[in-house]
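lol ok so funny story. i was supposed to be doing the assay writeup but got distracted and ended up predicting the structure for this chain instead. priorities right. anyway since i did it might as well share w the group, maybe its usefull for someone
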Amino acid sequence: MSPFLSVKDLDMNNEELKKLLNEVETKYSEIIWLSRRNENDFSDPDKGPKMQRIMDENPDEIEDFIIANEAMAQWNHGFFTGMLAGMRFIQTAMKHNAETAYEMFPDIETD
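and the output, tada:
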């Protein structure tokens, strides 16, 4: 999946759009979930493999988010959190309605 949309992507049907939004929401949800873990969680049999998978699947984002200097890491945290909230807003509006989306906004909870 390309991280960039082109004009032809605007012609996607509703199911394709839902799939794309779900992929983006999952990506940022997992990155935010990872940011809320600590080093000791790597030894947890449930959390450790998931943490490693997220790091392997998103090396650039993880480098920008976790390894970067503190100011850049804070900016990226805000960006990633905003992406998560925005994706969830759009998904909720599409599934329910705008009023429900506004009531739930910003939804940045992770498991």
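The helical segments are 14-35, 47-57, 59-67, 70-95, 98-104. The CA atoms of residues 89 and 103 lie 10 Å apart.
back to the writeup now i swear
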